[in-house]
Amino acid sequence: MSAESHEGVHRHPAPTGFIRKYIFSVDHKVIGIQYIMLALAAVAVGMTMSLLMRLNLSWPGTHWPILETLFPTGAPGGIMTPEFYLSLVTMHGTIMVFFVLTTAPQGGFGNYFLPIQIGAEDMAFPVLNMMSFWVTLVGFIVILLAIFVEGNQHLGEIFAGLGPSFAGGSGTVGPIGGWTGYAPLSALGKIAGPGQGAGMNLWVISIAIFCVGSLLGALNFITTLLNMRTKGMSLMRMPLTCWAWFTTAVLALLSFPVLLGGGILLLLDRIAGTSFFIPSGLYVSGLLSGTNPNFPLHTGGSPILWQHLFWFFGHPEVYIAILPGMGATSHILATFARKPVFGYRAMVFAIFAIGLLGFFVWGHHMFISGMSPYSAIAFSVLTLSIGVPSAVKTFNWLGTLWGARIRFTTAMLFALGFVSLFVAGGITGLILGQSSLDLAMHDTYIVTAHFHLVMGVASIFGMFAALYFWFPKMFGRLMNETIGKIHFWITFVGVYAIFVPMHIMGIVGMPRRYSSFAEYRFLDTLHPLVVLVSVAAVITIFAQVLFYFNVFWSIFKGKKAGDNPWEATTLEWTTATPPPHDNFAGVLPVVYHGPYEFAVPGAPNDYVMQTDVGAEVPSGNGHNGHKH
Amino acid sequence: MGRVLAVIIWILTLLSVLLFVSGKWWFPAPISEHAPALDRQFFITIVVVGIAFTAAQVGLGWMVWKYRDTGSAAGDRAVYSHGSNRLEVIWTVITAVIFIGLGVMGQSVWANLRLHDAPPGSYTVEVVAQQFQWNFHYSGKDGKFGRTDPKFIDDGTLNFVGLDATDPSAVDDPVTSSLAIPVNRPVELRLRSKDVIHNFWVPQLRFKQDLVPGMEIKVHFTANKVGKYELACAELCGQLHFKMRSFMLVLPEDEIQQLQAMPQEQFQARMKELLDKYPLPTYQ
User: Fold this and answer.
1) Does residue A597 contact residue A608 with C-beta atoms inside 8 Å?
2) How far apart are CA A240 and CA A243, in angstroms?
3) C or N: which end of chain B has fewer Cβ atoms within 10 Å?
4) Is A150 helix (H, G, I), strand (E, B) or coil?
5) Are B75 and A602 in contact (CB under 8 A)?
6) E strands within A263-400?
7) Can you give the pLDDT at residue A167?
């Protein structure tokens, strides 16, 4: 036992039963893997939805027999209806943002590796940790029900028992509102058309449940990192991954409560007749508010209030999705560049700056919403200033590669891909962040292209890199490098082919969330690009089968890994593979060095582990000295 | 592997840049007074974006080409460096100046368009959106908008905007499903919605504005090219969002004056003729 024993932590012996060990486990490592598995399931669903959307946009009116079987009301005769398409838009966004981009990077990898990287035996609150996963899983089940409740007679009948607003049968397949669920469309209920009935209730409930799960997780991360670092693990000796997870947790702690509150108000508007987001005098589907039992009186609400609440959460959420990817990329780049991270301190400050500024820019989603044009100017200039710490990170990644001896593992390829995609996606923020240009660009495909590249694909590349990198530690076996590299090449080229042409569509003026472009002549010229994007999407999506095969094949059949297959420096590589229940077999490590001591002159190896006693490290401790 | 990755990054960069400079797809030709300034700001921004994108990708490719581990000599190690404070300061300051400078420059179009009221003498139209349909309410011969109230709205009798029949100034107010505005004269639109949020979007005008139920939002602009243009809804409003299309006619002043004096039926008939008369712009 380390002298710095943490009295606050209750040590438990390793569980023996299968259920306590693998199902209702309080071990942060098992919970981390559970989160990753949840994300793998969710991303498969979300990706299938994007496949269907691309098929509909490029080859409209095509008969898809499987859809007829699954969604007899959403796709009668196997042909997708507009409402089916819009519910795909909504569910794709919701599932990807919440159940993929918020679960895997933080709940998954953060859960598994944050305690190990700081030299702790577990999270500060293991039971809370278990609850956060199970609450999140319940949220996922509810969102899946939201897809089917209205398209399925049997489920619809069961849910009708919850009350009239839950009765299904509007003939669609899920809620319609986009992942942003703008009120009053999302607040009015069935009267506002297909996709506004029981499925929308479940959508709101699912998000509220998710918020609770994320809050529990965030509390745990913050407490663990601040209180449970092992001897010698000063803050500035932490790997950049830990800084990223910590900042992400702070963002989650401050932003999810706002969404939770907003979600509850929205649900009250929907089922309890309140008017938080519904103004007076609405006339919907031929009925005036208050003149008919199907449309009770609403008065005094503000639709824009929902947007403020949503985006106060929604913009930090973007950074919740990508900060862990930045951390993993820094970590992996240094490891395979065989070089210390360039400008460690600047990287830490940049993470902080991004997190802090991320709370003051939500209004850039609302330039044309009708809010004050003066506030738009403030939001716009603040938004552009977020580009500065983002650029600083990019410069430092390139600086890390300068003078390196790069080893091109699959993990490294994905980390390099992250840098490329982060630049490609992030740089167009300079366009969209300007209120003037947003007048033309708002809600077109350039927005879709921008956020998919930067918060979607770049984040996912960060997670791919993380999984290929940490897989041997988690499962004791390496993933197959040949399949991994094929997976990388197709995916890297594929995402460029999908998302770069979307920028052009946006410049021409193609609106998002259209199930068909047939009504508009000014969009006709874009047809070749629409088809190109769909073909690239189909190829890229099918290439992910290689990834899934690689994961599950390698768990059982992969090449056995040693304790430190990558010759890396941080604490997770000092312990056994896979790590024992208490991470360090009863002896907490003591840290003597900064996290990225590669290529230290005079050291016997080209890497000095954080626990190496006696090694001479010139600048040490991640200080920002200019030494070669 | 490093060289392959470098070449692929460079090819992707080249193809991406080519797609933008090809000129095959770009904004539709502008028809509003503020549009050239917006297009110019867009052009300046995208040049900065293009240079930064290309520089970063070329640099990344160069790094992975040059600093791949060739395994040539045992004991050959990477450069040991923890960074350079001077470089950090230099690139932070340079990017801050460029990015924030762009942001400040980018406010002028916005400020001119949104921080002022419409100039006196503007031609005013009330726009009332509803699920999947646009309604345009004109002041009619008397130049005064009749009173409207949601309680008078009745889609069944085609009183889409809720005109109060007891108000004398309402009697001559035409309401149509297409928008007609004068050329070379400031136009003020008063935007409202009956049900959910919609968005007014004519690509050639280069602006969007949400129509928010419970609010009246005023926007103004000056169109400077006669013709017929497509008008789209750009905020998800439900099932048939993609079909919520209308047309905007930009007409010579005398044509607008004649229309303005016509009662409802004549106005509608004349709008139909004009919609047939003007073709849509040809898109390449």
Assistant:
1) yes
2) 5
3) C
4) coil
5) no
6) 283-284, 287-288
7) 63
| pLDDT tens-digit readout, B203-249 | 999 999 999 999 999 999 999 999 999 999 999 999 999 999 999 99
In order, the DSSP letters of A99-149 are IITTIIIIIIIIHHHHHHHTT-SS-S-HHHHHHHHHHHHHHHHHHHHHHHT
Per cent of chain B over pLDDT 90 is 93
- Render B81-119 in DSSP notation, one character per residue: ----HHHHHHHHHHHHHHHHHHHHHTHHHHHHHHSSPPP
Q: Apex CA B97: angle with CA B96 and CA B99, to 5°?
A: 65
Q: Quick one: B14 and B100 in the same domain? A: yes
Cis amide prior to A578 (ω within 30 degrees): yes
Residues from chain A that touch B208, judged by Cβ atoms under 8 A, are 368, 439-440, 442-443
Q: DSSP secondary structure string, A424-481?
A: HHHTTHHHHTSHHHHHHHTTBHHHHHHHIIIIIIHHHHHHHHHHHHHHHHHHSBPPPH
- Mean pLDDT per block of 10 residues along chain A (628 residues) reads 45 79 92 98 97 95 85 84 94 97 96 98 96 97 88 68 64 84 95 90 97 96 97 97 98 97 97 96 94 92 97 96 98 97 97 96 96 95 96 97 96 98 97 96 98 97 98 97 98 98 97 96 96 98 98 97 96 96 94 96 92 74 40
> Could you give the number of structural domains in chain B?
2
Structural domain of B60: 2-68+84-113
CA distance A94 to A102: 11
Name the CATH topology of A325-560: Cytochrome C Oxidase; Chain A (1.20.210)
Which residues 89-128 of chain B have a CB within 8 Å of chain A?
A: 91-92, 95-96, 99-100, 102-104, 106-111, 113-115
Under DSSP, is residue B246 helix (H, G, I), strand (E, B) or coil?
Answer: strand
Q: Which helix (H) or strand (E) holds B53?
A: helix B35-66
For A57, A260, A452, A506, the CA distances from A437, given in Å and listed in that order, are 27, 32, 19, 12
Strand A607-608 versus strand B123-130 pairing type: unpaired
Residue B79 within a domain: no
User: Using the beta-carbon criterion (under 8 Å), do A408 and B68 form an inter-chain contact?
Assistant: yes
Q: What pLDDT is recorded for position A67?
A: 84
Alpha-carbon gap, residue A418 to A394, rounded angstroms: 10
- Distance between CA atoms of A61 and A81, rounded to whole angstroms? 9
Q: Give the closest-approach CA distance of B37 to chain A in angstroms.
A: 10
* Domain identity same for B32 and B45: yes
Task: Give the helix/strand (H/E) hosting A510.
Answer: none
Comparing alpha-carbon positions, the chain A residue that sits nearest to B34 is: A436
* B60/B102 same-domain check: yes
Whether B98 contacts B48, CB under 8 Å: yes
Question: How far apart (Å, rounded) are the C-alpha atoms in residues A474 and B196?
Answer: 49
Q: Which CATH class is domain A28-301?
A: mainly alpha
Q: Which amino acid is at A480?
A: N
- Residue A544: name the closest of A584, A498, A506 by CA: A498
Could you tell me the pTM of the whole model?
0.95
Task: Please write the tens of the pLDDT for every residue from B50-106.
Answer: 999 999 999 999 999 999 988 766 678 999 999 999 999 999 999 999 999 999 998
Other Cβ atoms within 10 Å of B158 Cβ, number: 9
Nearest chain B residue to A181 by CA distance is: B236
Q: Report ipTM (2 d.p.).
A: 0.96
Q: Is B32 on the interface with A (CB under 8 A)?
A: no
* Max intra-chain CA distance, chain B: 96
**Residue A42 carries which side chain, given as an amino acid letter?**
A
Please tell me which residue of chain A has the smallest CA distance to B23.
A504
Cα-atom radius of gyration of chain B, to the nearest Å? Answer: 27
- Which tokens is B98 given? 């460029």
